[in-house]
Amino acid sequence: MTRRELIPPSWSIVSEALWRRFFQELDAYLSSETRSILRSLALRTRQGIEALDPLMTRYCAETCPQCEDVCCTAARVAYNITDMLYLLGLELALPLGQTRTQKGDPCRYWLPSGCALPRYLRPYVCTWFFCEAHMQLFSMEHPKFQRHILSILQDVHALRETIYQTVRPCLSIVHFPVVFRADTSVLPYNQ
Ligand code: SF4
Ligand code: SF4
What we know:
- By secondary structure, the chain is mostly helical.
- The protein has one domain.
- It has seven helices and two strands, in the order αααββαααα.
- The two termini are 13 Å apart.
- 25% of the residues are buried.
- The protein binds iron/sulfur cluster (SF4) (2 copies).
């Protein structure tokens, strides 16, 4: 499966009003206990993502300037439900909105110089996805280092799964905009 196939197209194109409403409605509904668990999980997830950042930044510096098929222009790179729950748990200023506002646009955070967002605020697919060029670089790393990175990826995956399961009971109760409700039910992954 490629990064382009991961997310239904409608998920990546929502208005900023709908984007904000998702967070506002969920924020109002979460109990203090759930919020506290979510905060802790999000913080640990951010630490994992930041631990991956030097490797990914190094790979991007080596490969992205020459790339002829820039993944940040792929229509289906977007925040998924777990990304959004994680963002809520961070309790920081949110990114402006989903990755694009209209069909055919590249990701709104994409600049010729790279991504405008710090890695911990990007959709997680922007971190865990290793394109062919990155896989090639990774295959040349020392096995011990590879195991270290894979173990961080596993930890982040487990944390994100716990984030999703922690907030999941609230998702069916809160009145989400239709686009989110529909897409949540068919979302193919919550990595
Ligand atoms: S991450 Fe890979 S696919 Fe994406 S722009 Fe860089 S080299 Fe290209
Ligand atoms: S959030 Fe950043 S890394 Fe991810 S697709 Fe957009 S520009 Fe690329």
